[in-house]
Every structure is written in structure tokens, then in C-alpha cells.
Amino acid sequence: MAVLEIVATAFWAMVPAYVPNNAAVLFGGGPPIDGGRTWGDSRLLGDGKTWRGTIAGWGVGMLFALVLNQLTGPAGDALGVSLPTFSMPALIALPLGAMLGDIGASFLKRRSGRERGAPFPGLDQLDFVVGALALAFVADPGWFTDTFILPVVAVVLVLTPVLHVTTNGIAYALGLKDEPW
Hints:
Blueprint (H helix, E strand, L loop, with lengths): L2 H25 L10 E2 L2 E2 L7 H29 L8 H24 L11 H17 L1 H7 L2 H24 L8
Antiparallel strand pairs: 1-2
């Protein structure tokens, strides 16, 4: 696989995992998932993890995967590469795993004494990737191993923090986020 194809595959395959957290910010609000419950002297998750945001993020991620499936041929032809299509289990699992990874990170942040919005370098940038990849592997191991070969995973691990910092900075500048990370 050529470098362009590896980078294109990494980005393409991760779009359904990249968009859910952004969609959750746009469509979130409402009742928090933890219902205000605490563990010890801190919230389980916090007000930032809501049912509406989670469901919206998951739905938008699945919608993106469905649209990408329709564009795989033309986009691949335009780039001169072979892009993956999303199996039904993968298009459900990638965005759901991304949301669950972010929820899990929120839980870990609260356990470590960090308040909502406090930075946690590394975890903040890769939590949703770990969740998305893990759930995609469980949901469709064949699709996962065909798509996420080692060079593709390496690009995902390098590309994601760059994209994460960039998109969060833009959301902060637009007033959609309270902090730039």
C-alpha cells in the first residue's frame, strides 16, 4: 500500500469516529448520563456527557459512514487509491465506540480529580480512537483487520491528535467550546 493510500484509508476509515464528538457538542445538552450521581466526592461523568449529545454524535457518525459508502468509488478514483467501505457492524461500532471512549475518558478524568474541561494530554486526543477501534474490532473483526493494517493504525495515531487539536481550536474560536483542547 502506497503512502497516499495509507493516509487516505486512515482518514476515511476514521471519519465516522472523528465526527461524533463534534456533533455531540453541537447537538448536546439536556439530562446528563450520570443523572448527577457522584462517586466519592466527584461526579461520575459530569454535565458535559448527555444522552442527547451521545445519541446525536452516534447518529451523525453513522450517517457519515453511510454517505462515505456512497462516495467510496468516486473518491477513490479521484485519489487513485482503493478506499474501504463500511460494513453495517463497522458503521454502527465506530461512532458508538468513539462516544463510549469519550465517556470512559470523562470517568477517568473525574477519578483523577480533574474537573470538566481540564486537560488530560494523550487521553483527550486518543480516548475516542481507542473506543472506536476496540468496538469496531469486536463488531466486525474481518473488516477491522482488512482496513486497519499496522501502517494505517500508525497514521491514525499520528493524524488524530493533530486533527483533534485543530478542530477543538476552531470550535473554541467559534465559541462552541469553553476550552481549546
